[in-house]
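Residues and backbone
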Amino acid sequence: MIYFISVIILLLLLAFLAFLNFQFKVLFVPSNKLRILEYHSISVNGFEDQITISKDRIIEQFEYLKTNNYTTLWLSEVNDFKVKNLPIPPKSVVLTFDDGFADNHTELYPLLVKYNFKAVCFVVLGRIGQQADWGGKFVSENMTMMNKLQLKAISSHIELGYHTFKHDNYASLSLDEIEKDLQLCQEVIKNEELNVFPALAYTYGGYYRKKGIKQDQFFQVLEKYGIKYALRIGNRINILPFKNNYLIQRIDIRGKDSIKDFKKKVIFGRKKIF
């Protein structure tokens, strides 16, 4: 009886460890872990919501990353480590900012210079220098995008990536429409002479989620247009090498996350452990 109980306890313990490893990657070596944090806009007046974080709060978060010796990487650098078959630095993090808001130039860029950090900005390529016109609860038309000169001025610390042509949700587009969208993105990149790394952040986290022929065809379209990586949300730490280059997970950092929430997300990938 005691033996039976011991076996049950052992199995439960192993199952618990397996759960922790699946959810939080606690058993993987640090050089195989990659945290990718997702931001959008930065405010200077203290305003915060789901996609806008105050400057004071992001400074607090950057201080934490700096004090705790996190290394910020571009996705192109992650790709270089992969190509050279080298481990990434322990405690590596990719800071990503979606849409390409003008405050990424006026507020984010100086902070990156100050902390010697790097970031990736996924740009809505058909709205460069224009106002945000895709609507939504947290987006207003007085939110403006970086212009061509600003996009080039930040290149020492910010790498650019794709965020569709006009902020469409790929989950609601046909494959032909997605092809057209990527064509338009690449025309902008060529005409504006922008240096854009071929990584895509899905707007609204939208992509062909259901496994099968259509998802395979969707990934083939991305590959056809040279997209090396595509990022969803997911709120988990990535383990290298990526299982699927088009299903890379990001950790959503919201404007009202406390520093305690932020630390949990960086360490575990999410603030709620159970």
Observations:
- Residues 30-268 form a domain with the TIM Barrel fold (CATH 3.20.20.370).
- Residues 39 and 97 are 5 Å apart (CA to CA).
- The radius of gyration is 20 Å.
- Helices lie at 2-24, 55-67, 75-83, 103-115, 148-153, 175-191, 213-224, 259-268.
